[in-house]
Specification:
The chain has about 200 residues and is α/β, with parallel strands linked by helices. It has two domains: about 5-65; about 75-180, Type II secretion system, protein E, N-terminal domain (GMP Synthetase, Chain A, domain 3). Strand 2 and strand 3 form a beta hairpin. The chain has helices at about 5-20, 30-45, 50-60, 65-75, 90-95, 100-105, 125-135, 145-160; strands at about 80, 105-110, 115-120, 140-145, 180. Helix 1 runs parallel beside helix 6. It is globular, with a radius of gyration of 16 Å.
């Protein structure tokens, strides 16, 4: 991973942690423990496991990804997507920085005219949203998904047939119907994708 993407990874995780605390999804003391563990993972050069959300959810076990996704639906109006229903189009794969995807736990999964459809497990990190909005000149429609969903999708792009989640996640990446949230640059009348939908565990 390049120094630029390593720095991006650090910012993405730092601001995600701050966002989780700000939205009362985790306690500051639990975040501090997770950050210590995250630094150990980064030092051991395991970029696909370098996720503070993964540490909080699957090592310390003080939050569930389903709760984060439900929060995004209820408070941010975000749509959710199951990436298993998508074969990445050539336009989405062209020039894709895989390390940046791993660093931000986000990936563009479709393109329609000027609109880019972006799936992310790190939507609550302003550093992640800012990074991708600067890379795409047109409006972005953001969708929430799980760490597992991102990992499996990136594996299909970079190493087909060898999909492996970064943490032992029970079940598959789920999604639920909800309205998509465009970035600030998106016009009001944005096209809405129609991915295969399935309810998020624990979502209302």
């Amino acid at each position: 991973m390049s120094p630029e993407n390593r720095s991006l990874l650090m910012r993405a995780n730092r601001l995600l942690g701050a966002g989780l605390v700000e939205h009362n999804l985790v306690k500051i003391e639990d975040l501090e423990k997770a950050n210590e563990r995250l630094l150990e993972i980064i030092a051991s050069n395991q970029p696909r496991s370098a996720t503070v959300l993964g540490v909080l959810a699957y090592e310390i076990k003080v939050i569930r990804e389903e709760d984060v996704l439900q929060h995004l639906v209820e408070t941010e109006g975000l749509g959710l997507v199951d990436l298993r229903g998508y074969e990445p189009p050539d336009d989405a794969k062209k020039g894709l920085d895989m390390d940046a995807c791993w660093a931000t736990w986000s990936v563009p999964f479709d393109q329609e005219e000027d609109f880019t459809f972006m799936a992310s497990a790190y939507y609550l990190s302003p550093a992640v949203r800012s990074y991708w909005e600067k890379r795409h000149h047109g409006p972005i429609l953001w969708f929430g998904t799980t760490l597992e969903g991102i990992a499996e999708h990136l594996d299909r792009i970079g190493n087909p047939g060898n999909s492996k989640a970064p943490f032992p996640v029970p079940g598959a990446a789920a999604s639920a119907p909800a309205a998509a949230v465009p970035s600030q640059a998106a016009p009001a009348a944005a096209p809405t994708p129609a991915p295969a939908q399935a309810p998020v565990a624990g979502a209302a």
